[in-house]
Amino acid sequence: MNNLSQLFEIQKALKDANYPDYKRVSKEIIEFVEDEKDLKKVLDNIKKDKPWEYICGNAEFYTIPFKVNQNVLIPRVETEKLVGLAIQEYKDKKFDTVVDIGTGSGCIIIALVKSLRLPTIYKGKIKDTEFYATDKSSKALKVARKNIKEHKLEEIIKARKMDIINRIKLEDKNVLLLANLPYIPKEEYKELDKSVKKYEPKGALEGGLSGNKYYKRLLSQIKEKDMKSFTLILETEESIIDETKDIFVEYNPKVIKDIYEKNRFLIMRD
Ligand SMILES: C[S@@+](CC[C@H](N)C(=O)[O-])C[C@H]1O[C@@H](n2cnc3c(N)ncnc32)[C@H](O)[C@@H]1O
């Protein structure tokens, strides 16, 4: 088969499987496969709705490459704004500790630290800040650790298994909390795209009946920690953001939109 008919076959398979951005992915597939056997395997997976990121094992977030597998959520483009908000917050105030809660692939904290180390973005030093990545899934943390190592940040980011923030000492610290915890309400989860339900970890997506199960738990853990001050930036979704806002109402949360103009983030300071 020549290259052109190969490309057409790949593009047809991607279109049939309703792949967004099929032109870019088809080019990546051409570069990825070494022979016809490889290509057949890839096309078989595509026909079974497997996301390309899980087939090739890589995903891009904030223009940075990350390793992914089915134990972690594929980083979403909407989440990139959370990194931008965190950079701004860090530049405005000195934090002793930064925690990425529910780190998955580690994309948020890695993108943040890599950005803060660029003199064009941040002129100060980050050495006095402790950076943590937490997740309740050991399998997800394995991926996060691999990415931390790949980006040579083992000396800076500590990946720890725990429920939310329950095992980190935050007493008397100025803390920046970043959270993209599972927030899809149980009923909405059932309506998600079949490729998401079939391949992405349910434990990374579903947030109980209301979608706010983990954010309620985050609030009670925040109250147990005697932090000197904290800023919390969290990601949620438009259908439940009013309820998420109510949970944190005492901290006067402000709603921030994502790149698609949807109400997506809450930022609050105490
Ligand atoms: C929506 S994913 C976000 C992953 C990654 N931060 C991102 O933005 O792509 C949620 C993550 O939270 C983790 N998680 C779920 N419940 C948790 C809990 N109680 N404590 C800590 N992490 C949790 C999941 O394992 C998953 O990795």
Automatic annotation (TrEMBL):
A GO term for molecular function: peptide chain release factor N(5)-glutamine methyltransferase activity
InterPro entries, A to Z: HemK-like, N5-glutamine_MTase, SAM-dependent_MTases_sf, Small_mtfrase_dom
CDD domains, alphabetized: AdoMet_MTases
Coiled coil: none
The keyword Cell division is assigned to this record: no
Keywords: Methyltransferase, S-adenosyl-L-methionine, Transferase
Gene3D superfamilies for this protein: Vaccinia Virus protein VP39
Keyword check for Methyltransferase: yes
EC number: 2.1.1.297
Catalytic reaction annotation: L-glutaminyl-[peptide chain release factor] + S-adenosyl-L-methionine = N(5)-methyl-L-glutaminyl-[peptide chain release factor] + S-adenosyl-L-homocysteine + H(+)
Methyltransferase small domain: residues covered: 90-183
Main enzyme class: transferase
UniProt-listed GO biological process terms: methylation
Pfam families for this protein: MTS (PF05175)
PANTHER family associated with the record: HEMK METHYLTRANSFERASE (PTHR18895), MTRF1L RELEASE FACTOR GLUTAMINE METHYLTRANSFERASE (PTHR18895:SF74)
Protein name per the record: peptide chain release factor N(5)-glutamine methyltransferase
Organism name: candidate division WS6 bacterium 34_10
